[in-house]
What we know:
By secondary structure, the protein is of the alpha+beta class. The chain is 55% helix and 12% strand. It has helices at residues 17-29, 44-51, 60-77, 87-93, 97-109, 114-127, 135-144, 149-158, 162-177, 203-209, and strands at residues 6-12, 35-41, 185-190, 193-198. It catalyses: RX + glutathione = an S-substituted glutathione + a halide anion + H(+).
Amino acid sequence: AEMGRTLVELFYDVVSPYSWLGFEVLCRYQHVWDIDLRLRPAFLGGIMHATGNKPPALLRKRGEYMLKDMQRMAKYYQVPIIASEDDMQRMLSSSTLGAMRFITATDMTQPRYVEPLSREFWLRFWSQREDVSQPENIMAVAKKAGLSPELTQKLLEMISSPAVKNRLRETTEEALKYGAFGMPAVVAHLNGEPHLFFGSDRLELLGSIIGE
């Protein structure tokens, strides 16, 4: 982080709608608050497995609440999440591993594209309700985010490389080290101490703790 600025890390996976909400709010506030926002693409499946966490919607009443909650949050934050009853099944049956490796490869080579690319993956999965695991959909997302066909091809080839796989695994392990058990996991670094905030509804508290 620059002198006097608070480093705030956002660990996220595009399968998570609450991660999208947290991402958009922090992307807006990085221009208002005195923070350096660092986007950290990670793998939610790995975090759930390592901590023994279960998808909250497996509890029927909680699933019903989450659907309403997502609709309210989307309206309030003006993020175009289209939530419906089949979402929990869609989340459970979709793999974003390839997408998160693609974003990771981008972060390693062309980090300036990470923000628009992540946003386009969420738009495709949560607004257009499409599968983001297919290479042709990954290519379409990359094109919309402004990546050239040559760069997209290079990044697609990198997805299966040990370097990219290891980076994604290491980032996921870093989130776990900070105490993450789900996503989004927001970590603010204050006076050499990491402070973990879980979810997209703790950002007022984050602001208060960093003096904003």
